[in-house]
Amino acid sequence: xxxxxxxxxxxxxxxxxxxxxxxxxxxxxxxxxxxxxxxxxxxxxxxxxxxxxxxxxxxxxxxxxxxxxxxxxxxxxxxxxxxxxxxxxxxxxxxxxxxxxxxxxxxxxxxxxxxxxxxxxxxxxxxxxxxxxxxxxxxxxxxxxxxxxxxxxxxxxxxxxxxxxxxxxxxxxxxxxxxxxxxxxxxxxxxxxxxxxxxxxxxxxxxxxxxxxxxxxxxxxxxxxxxxxxxxxxxxxxxxxxxxxxxxxxxxxxxxxxxxxxxxxxxxxxxxxxxxxxxxxxxxxxxxxxxxxxxxxxxxxxxxxxxxxxxxxxxxxxxxxxxxxxxxxxxxxxxxxxxxxxxxxxxxxxxxxxxxxxxxxxxxxxxxxxxxxxxxxxxxxxxxxxxxxxxxxxxxxxxxxx
Length: 402
Ligand SMILES: Cc1cc2nc3c(=O)[nH]c(=O)nc-3n(C[C@H](O)[C@H](O)[C@H](O)COP(=O)(O)OP(=O)(O)OC[C@H]3O[C@@H](n4cnc5c(N)ncnc54)[C@H](O)[C@@H]3O)c2cc1C
Known about the structure:
With about 400 residues, the chain is α/β, with parallel strands linked by helices. Among the domains are: about 5-45 and about 95-165 and about 265-345, FAD/NAD(P)-binding domain; about 350-400, no CATH class. It is about 35% helix and about 30% strand. It has helices at about 15-25, 50-55, 60, 95-110, 155-160, 225-240, 295-315, 315-320, 325-350, 360-370, 370-380, 390-400, and strands at about 5-10, 30-35, 45-50, 65-75, 80-95, 115, 120-125, 130-135, 140-145, 165-175, 190-195, 200-210, 210-220, 250-260, 270-275, 275-280, 355, 355-360. The strands form three sheets. Strands 1, 2, 6, 7, 8, 9, 15 and 16 form an eight-stranded mixed beta sheet that branches. A hairpin with a 2-residue loop joins strand 15 (about 270-275) and strand 16 (about 275-280). Helix 1 (about 15-25) runs parallel beside helix 4 (about 95-110) and helix 10 crosses helix 11 (about 370-380). The N and C termini lie far apart (about 75 Å). Bound molecules: flavin-adenine dinucleotide (FAD). Flavin-adenine dinucleotide binds near residues 36, 45 and 119.
């Protein structure tokens, strides 16, 4: 037996799925949202860029969901040169339990129906989808959305998994602040640190969350072994704490994959089909250079919500079918071309030369002495710097040094 028919079924209640559920429910659509974990501590840095908190104002509206606002960023180059830049507008760092809780609570308040179970199967019956959960329940819906993250089950069934070239591997530690140290060991709440190791397609980070320091390393899958990544990470954490790793009882380890699409994957990338669509990580919407995907999770949910609301109001059956072409057009225009450009820039960013040095080394050196280069860096962190003009903007600013 299946339940009554819903307008839209969403698999996954992370930032993408829960945000979509809240927008569609607020617009009067009948939405059912599935996730076995609810609001959970997903492996993540939890860094929400300035652009996201500007565009999605609800993120900072409710102080019940704690976060840190970061106003300084220290960059460490492959030759250990450092520069600290002040951010005109902060970016936010959340524990993922809090961020997911915020978005899921909004979806529930807007009227979405939440099923705390994982989806184990789905199939078509005429124009409808029959969705089966791990505990054997069945649900019926007119439209299916996969918002189930980098290892998306929905994507696997509808399009196939991401190939290895499209994936980065990330490991990290969450370190609880040491109460016994009377605040001496507390994270520097307003400052994040990013380090670029030599000959490495990725970076290390230290992100201060309320009461917790989040450390991580991300790199293209297959470039380094897991042991090498873990050892880079441990050295970084040890350096951060002045030569000593925090006691094991304060430390929890995590690892996960991030979609970071290769340049060759963008032209043929699809995120929808007849009566289905993918959003967020499941669609591959992450910045290939930084691995940042929270903004794109919200943004793709926004775009799909608009398309579903507009198309479905045209007239039931045909409206839903025309979702595909409109959604594909809009995500590409909104951020797809920019992300494709980031894939194009990736080799220059991590392995290129600039003014006779490794790219990140040259940028850190120049930024120490030149406000113009710092401005480009600050704009990059805020999400205001286009990858399309990154090199020319840096060249223009760097040229002014001389
Ligand atoms: C180590 C690491 C660090 C990162 N740091 C940052 C950062 O600092 N800033 C940033 O912007 N991005 C970062 N990212 C990327 C960011 O985590 C993702 O881009 C973001 O979470 C994508 O949101 P989403 O809603 O698409 O997917 P997710 O957040 O992965 O949510 C997917 C949801 O689907 C659920 N699900 C999965 N399968 C099923 C199923 N079969 N049935 C029902 N539910 C299911 C899961 O339980 C999960 O809740 C990082 C990623 C990693 C791995």
